[in-house]
């Protein structure tokens, strides 16, 4: 899809901030004890956290950006909502219908100062769409930006957090995606944040101001920090929102998916209830990803417990793709009510080569232990020792394929499976 100049420029800014973060000294623990030494805006920034009435589990839904970019109007959101019901996605757990950038008029309302939905695209207003989405038992998300303009140049919320939070809540919005474009120069980050704590960086404070404004509305709302992995967000994201983007925008290519996997695999200890690394919206149905790559995209987003926001025109998905995104076992792992942690990398055998991203992951769910194997290269047999899976030990184990539900048999010591190029094996393991 075409990238606007605004967006491209913001990417460059984002990359600069990332490299500044990489050169900073090791961050201290996120304790508030040091706040007494803070000066300037960090000393007065709000510290209230996100609502814990929502956002315990990673979000499941749909967003307009990957499939439609700026070419949106209310029809596509109502169509996606109806497809959630018709295709059984709502029954599978998908609930959010999220509006991305370009819903706004060019200017705020001259008398109220409010952001205005562009009437030619949204004749019913955002409240009108919210009513229809809610009537289907679903939830509505909206988009703004912690800068002077959104990525595509529309009015944004920096400095107007209170008014915009009130407006979104009054419209009935349930979810806010908050982007990171067009940051005024006095809001950029120093190489080292105050007290060496990135929670006190200017970036974090831009987001903390919106957290406080949302809190003051008195209504719980899911708050998604679209901060592109800058300012070490995984260290403080859960104190400010429910999920946070870990990288720049995804594209519908294996190289993009595999680089997001490699980046996110390093920060899986930040993931638990109310605390989700966001690997970006789904590209299933877009571009020329192979079927195996689409399976890996879904499985890895599920076992790393990223939000899963479908990003394509749902009318165009075929039955194989629908089966992937409705896979009950992977969705159960993703939405587990008892275990909040994701699967994490382990060393499969004493001699397993190391790859980027890692190929072998293990994690517990309320059903048992799971192993996921991503083939980052060409078709091959992949082997792991049961004793290397943290928490399994030695013995005989029964292995079930989560994609098909099929029992693969009982095995001692080790397990081998052929995995296609860029495909992912998903296994449930019980002691035999
Ligand atoms: C606002 O913050 C207070 C203090 O943490 C909390 O008790 C309250 O539930 C929050 N309200 C919302 C709507 O998030
Ligand atoms: C939205 O765009 C589609 C496709 O261009 C069009 O068919 C539909 O009527 C439009 N809806 C509104 C509300 O403008
Ligand atoms: C905040 O609102 C004021 C008054 O409507 C407006 O002048 C300003 O541009 C707004 N800021 C942003 C970032 O949209
Ligand atoms: C940047 O300038 C604006 C307008 O003067 C001010 O409100 C804001 O606090 C400043 N930001 C920082 C981080 O000092
Ligand atoms: C669906 O599309 C994928 C490619 O994205 C293809 O591999 C698969 O065979 C298709 N399934 C059906 C039922 O056409
Ligand atoms: C895997 O083994 C390497 C050394 O061979 C070690 O550095 C690494 O920490 C191990 N990884 C895990 C997840 O245990
Ligand atoms: C991918 O597999 C090929 C063929 O087995 C092998 O030659 C190559 O070294 C592998 N690449 C990596 C990065 O492991």
TrEMBL record:
- Looking at the record, the residues that make up the Alpha galactosidase C-terminal domain are 357-428
Q: Name one GO molecular function term.
A: alpha-galactosidase activity
The answer to keyword Transit peptide applying to this record is no
Recite the UniProt keywords alphabetically. Answer: Disulfide bond, Glycoprotein, Glycosidase, Hydrolase, Secreted, Signal
Pfam families in UniProt: Melibiase_2, Melibiase_C
Specify the signal sequence span.
Answer: 1-24
Per the record, the major location class is secreted
Leading EC class: hydrolase
Under InterPro entries, the record lists:
Aldolase_TIM, GH, Glyco_hydro_27, Glyco_hydro_27/36_CS, Glyco_hydro_b, Melibiase_C
Catalytic activity entry: Hydrolysis of terminal, non-reducing alpha-D-galactose residues in alpha-D-galactosides, including galactose oligosaccharides, galactomannans and galactolipids
Q: Where in the cell is it found?
A: Secreted
UniProt record, GO biological process: carbohydrate metabolic process
Q: Which GO terms describe its cellular component?
A: extracellular region
Is Disulfide bond among this UniProt entry's keywords? yes
Xref: SUPFAM superfamilies: (Trans)glycosidases, Glycosyl hydrolase domain
Enzyme Commission number(s) of this protein: 3.2.1.22
State the similarity comment: Belongs to the glycosyl hydrolase 27 family.
Q: What is this protein called?
A: Alpha-galactosidase
